[in-house]
Design a protein that fits this description.
Layout (H helix, E strand, L loop, with lengths): L1 E6 L6 E6 L5 H7 L19 E4 L3 H4 L5 H6 L11 E3 L12 E4 L6
Parallel strand pairs: 1-5
Antiparallel strand pairs: 1-2, 3-4, 3-5
C-alpha cells in the first residue's frame, strides 16, 4: 500500500490514507471519504473538482500534466498554482510513497 498525506485548507485537518499501485489519488481519497475532493465526474477529466496542490518533492517528479489536464486546470474553483494537479490524473505507484498534497479551500 502507498501512504498519502492530505492537508486540509488553512489550519484544517491532516489525513493520512492508503492507496494501491495503479489507483488514482482521487480514487484512494474518495474510498477513504476525504472531505475536500468532490470528484463530481468520477475521474473522467471533465470537472476539475478533484483539484489538489502537490507538495515537493513530488510536484517536480510526477509526470507533467497532459494537455487535457492542463486545459481542465483552467476551470478550478480555487486559485490555480504552479503545483496544481487533478488528483484523478495522479496514478499511485511506489515512487509516490509519502505523496503529500494540500486541498484547496473549495472545489465549487
Amino acid at each position: 500500500m502507498i501512504t498519502i498525506r492530505l492537508h486540509g485548507p488553512g489550519a484544517g485537518e491532516t489525513r493520512e490514507i492508503e492507496g494501491r499501485a495503479g489507483q488514482s489519488l482521487m480514487e484512494a481519497a474518495v474510498k477513504a471519504n476525504v472531505t475536500g475532493i468532490e470528484a463530481d465526474c468520477g475521474g473522467l477529466l471533465t470537472c476539475a473538482t478533484c483539484h489538489v496542490y502537490v507538495r515537493e518533492p513530488f510536484s517536480s517528479t510526477l509526470p507533467p500534466p497532459t494537455e487535457d489536464e492542463a486545459g481542465m486546470l483552467e476551470f478550478t474553483a480555487a486559485q490555480r498554482r504552479p503545483n496544481s494537479r487533478l488528483s484523478c490524473q495522479i496514478v499511485l505507484d511506489p515512487t509516490t510513497q509519502g505523496l503529500t498534497v494540500d486541498l484547496p479551500p473549495h472545489q465549487h
